[in-house]
Amino acid sequence: MANSDLHRLTIAQAGEEIKARRLSPVELTQAYLDRISSLNDHLGAYITVTGEQALSSARKAETQIQSGRHAGPLHGVPVAVKDIISTKGVLTSAGSKVLTDNIPDHDSTIIERLNSAGAPILGKLNLSEFAIGGTIEHPYGTPRNPWNTMHSAGGSSSGSAVATAGGLAAGSLGSDTGGSVRGPSAFCGIVGLRPTYGRVTRHAVVPMCWSMDTIGPMTRTVEDCALMLRVIAGHDPRDSSTSVNPVPDYAASLRNTVRGIKVGLPNEMFDFNGVDSQIKAGCEKAITLLEELGVEAERISLPTSAQSGAVFLAIADVDSAEFHSDWLKTRGDDYDWSTRTRLESATLTPASAYIRAQRARELIRREMIEALDRFDVIIMPSSPTVSPTIESATGSPGGYYQGRLDLSRRRYTSPAALAGLPSLSVPCGFSDEGLPMAIQIIGKPFAEETLFQVGHAYEQATDWHAREPGV
């Protein structure tokens, strides 16, 4: 394979080639760095590129593998991380002018785990400011959707989606508080996982909302997603919210049949008048295909979960505003207008509204758990629309992140976030305009294997994951 085509390898494929010593980690890392050099100014995926560090890590991996010390499927495979994950000696900006001088003196646990797995880290990825979403002026450049650069890559893990979909990293890590992995993954035609709350450590990660923040892999295939999750998952004594549940071999679940798996399809998400007709049709075709593969699908109702957008904002924004309170007083002018407005508005939220939102959250959690007592997974669209234009997604009045449109789109990603459940976004086609569409698979707590099992079965019966944007 020519160097110019190496970026087309999945993590699993590259890992096998490296393990068999048919591919050099140095060669692969350089191929990605060449693409970054050529395309990043156009796509806006990276804030910081750590080329020398990545090549040093690749050379170390090559030496280890040649001496028979192979560490696993990510050994020598280059990845990148969202710029809220602390990296020793490297800028961690959270996409904001507020942190332009933030050079951590330590790595996050996630970086330590990637280093232990032998994965060269190509750099730090662009995002909506402080992972909040709706940024108007990105200080480090506007991330652009590789399928159509006039369209949004989504928020807040925009750079992670762009880098993965555009072949500027073999895979990436994003964060998902209310949909920030799943939304960009859906818009950019890749696989994205929000793990169960507590499955992955958040030590030394800039927070948005402590009770909902998660870190998840963003990849081109379900198998790659499973491989990345196993590396980063597990208990961390430095993060009291992490679970002590053992970390399974997620990739092993891909071999299991989906026959007999019970699927719930929420009426409120398929029949909602805010869902694009092409999205609805694409998701229904995906369900039909899964039924042909043996799943048993049934319509259900999640009436409380359909109101989850407002509940999410009433909790997450207030929590985030508390974290930012000192900076808002002393560094307010360094924030993007949209971010500052949203945070300052949240400071005015009455305590009674926050408490009512917490009560509603429990009702939504209970509704989701009760549904999952009857079904193995819940499937719905990842987003009610395809990617909007950048112009309409930059926080302007009436835009994608404003008013009723913002609340209606959040009904698709907020239920899993509020309930702490794992959720996987998988590509399910393209609109007439050539923009990606996706289904979302939600599962029981710590049942990521089931999500991978269903997602992989669907993926293998289609070719959406094999398509590439023309960049």
Low-confidence stretches: none
Number of helices: 15
Strand fraction: 5-15%
Q: What is the averaged pLDDT score?
A: 96
What can be said about the biggest beta sheet? 11 strands, mixed
Number of strands: 11
Distance between the termini: 18 Å
Structural class: alpha/beta
Task: Please name the fourth-level CATH homologous superfamily.
Answer: Amidase signature (AS) domain
Mind telling me which CATH architecture this is? Alpha-Beta Complex
In the CATH scheme, the class would be: Alpha Beta
- How is the quaternary structure best described? single chain
Would you mind describing this structure in some detail?
The radius of gyration is 20 Å and the shape is globular. A hairpin with a 5-residue loop joins β10 (423-430) and β11. The chain is built from 15 helices and eleven strands. The chain has helices spanning 11-19, 25-43, 51-66, 109-116, 158-165, 182-188, 222-232, 267-270, 277-292, 308-330, 337-346, 351-374, 403-410, 414-419, 448-460, and strands at 46-49, 79-82, 121-125, 172-176, 191-194, 214-219, 262-266, 296-300, 377-381, 423-430, 436-443. The chain has one domain (3-466): Amidase signature (AS) domain (Amidase signature (AS) enzymes, Alpha-Beta Complex), CATH 3.90.1300. It is an alpha/beta fold. α2 (25-43) packs antiparallel against α3 (51-66), α10 packs across α11 and α10 packs across α12. Strands 1-3-2-4-6-5-10-11-9-7-8 form an eleven-stranded mixed β-sheet, with helices on both faces. Helices cover 39% and strands 13% of the residues.
